[in-house]
Amino acid sequence: MRALNNVLVTGGSGFIGSNFIRFLLEKTPEFSGRVINLDVLTYAGNPKNLQDLEEKSERYFFERGDICDRPFVESLFTKYDIDTVVHFAAESHVDRSILEPGAFIKTNVTGTFTLLDASRNYWAASDGARKDGSSLPDMRQDVLFHHVSTDEVFGSLGETGYFTETTPYAPRSPYSASKAAGDHLAMAYHHTYGLPITLTNCSNNYGPYQFPEKLIPLMILNMAEGKPLPVYGDGKNIRDWLYVEDHNAAVWTVMRNGKAGETYNIGGENEWENITLLDALIDIVSEKAGLDAEKIRSNVTFVKDRPGHDRRYAIDCSKIKSELGWKQNVSFEQGLENTVDWYLSNTLWIESVRSGEYRRWMEKNYGGR
Ligand code: NAD
Ligand code: TYD
Questions:
Q1: How many domains does the chain have?
Q2: 139 within domain boundaries
Q3: Is 92's C-beta closer than 6 angstroms to any atom of ligand 1?
Q4: Going by fewer Cβ within 10 Å, which terminus of the chain is more open, N or C?
């Protein structure tokens, strides 16, 4: 088992990263180290996600900065003597990657490279050249770079089959292509430099603190506000939904016990057609918010399909289950209820993420949908 003392979390002010930091500081008694959150705070990063921790935890540190900024990244390795990186920071929304791909290449490819290379430099053992006589220094093996990726790198499934760890990469959107590039760089740093890397590819996460441009929070808020519910194409695309806390428990399991150089798939084993999921969500929201379900249902609007829209994602996660003993703990019913409760009661958070850049971007591209 690894030491994991000074953990640099990138993108810790976003959806999954902020849930991960909360999980690490509040639900892992076996971890007594420090957490350093490196986040540039794009439209998707919200410092309010962790405001309470900032006030009450002496083990939590926030550093605002860009993962592409090499001198700044290096200064953090030195300042905190980083021994673990868990890399969540990314541009993460497929629709944005179609409209503005440049930021995805910069953060997801160049940013990942910058972090990997800074890790390689800082973790090079100081005792000189390799034993084989080449000029590369030995790499410390008591450290870890954990790279968080997506199942979207595997492309699109037909009606049957599952993504496994050996499924060939076939990304189809600028988002998934940029994540695939980051994944390849991470594994290349393992094979070439001996950097201890673990990598996870997970399915669609949902839960509290997700930015309301993604399907589930967007629909909950539009339902509550009586707005149209935009369904892309025929609504029969399938996603495998995973509760964010189950995902983060899996990431932590891999960080502690996963084998360097290995990848692990993480999924919910919970496939839903978008339209069927929407129907279930309408029932929950109408009941909790005291609204008329049929009125909400009348707002379902089929809109033009997303270009290159992947039809189906489904993860085979038997490897992490059998080798590392992880399993999902939260049923979809329970997870959706928690999520709806959270969005219906956190109006201040919603106001804060909707103000500023996000609203301006939505107005420019979608007329404020
Ligand atoms: P998110 O968009 O909610 O958060 C991303 C965070 O990264 C934000 O806080 C943002 O400010 C920060 N960030 C962006 N560019 C940065 C930069 N250049 N420097 C520093 N910080 C930067 O994303 P998320 O949904 O929490 O996803 C986290 C990770 O998980 C991503 O790597 C994503 O590809 C992966 N993933 C997400 C899902 C999902 O369903 N959300 C599924 C599979 C994989
Ligand atoms: P999304 O949350 O964007 O995640 P991803 O594209 O990374 O899987 O979308 C989930 C599914 O919901 C996807 O099939 C696209 C669809 N979708 C809609 O039908 N309407 C919407 O407004 C959004 C945002 C997504």
A1: 1
A2: yes
A3: yes
A4: N
Does 368 fall in a domain?
no
Cα 205 to Cα 96, 145, 270: the distances in Å are 18, 22, 11
Q: Considering only CA atoms, which of 4, 57, 50, 60 is closest in space to residue 31?
A: 4
| Number of the ligand 1 atom closest to the C-alpha atom of 211 | 3
369 assigned to some structural domain: no
Q: Which ligand is nearest to the CA of 211?
A: 1
CA 245 vs. chain centroid, Å, equals 11
Is there a domain that residue 1 lies in? no
Q: Are 15 and 44 in contact (CB under 8 A)?
A: yes
CA 320 – CA 7 distance, rounded (Å): 22
Q: What is the DSSP letter of 129?
A: E
pTM across the whole model: 0.97
How far CA 66 is from CA of 42, 56, 73, 117, in Å, comes to 10, 25, 8, 15
* CATH number of the domain where residue 314 is located: 3.40.50.720
**Do 268 and 241 touch, CB atoms closer than 8 A?**
yes
Task: Compute the distance from residue 57 Cα to the ligand 1 centre, in Å.
Answer: 23
End-to-end CA gap in the chain: 48
**157-185 tens-digit pLDDT:** 999 999 999 999 999 999 999 999 999 99
- Do residues 46 and 352 touch, judged by C-beta distance below 8 A? yes
Closest CA to 7 of 198, 261, 255: 255
Ordered alpha helix ranges (H), 33-152: 51-56, 70-80, 94-99, 102-104, 112-123
> Is there a contact between 224 and 185 (Cβ–Cβ < 8 Å)?
no
Q: pLDDT digits over 190-240, tens only? A: 999 999 999 999 999 999 999 999 999 999 999 999 999 999 999 999 999
Residues in the chain: 369
> Which residue range forms the structural domain that includes residue 200?
6-363
**Per-residue 3-state assignment (H helix, E strand, C coil) for 208-243:** CCCCCCCHHHHHHHHHHCCCCEEEECCCCCEEECEE
Ligand 1 in reach of 207 Cβ (< 6 A) = no
Say yes or no: CB of residue 215 within 6 Å of ligand 2. yes
Rounded to 5°, the CA angle 344-345-351 comes to 85
Active site residues: 151-152, 175
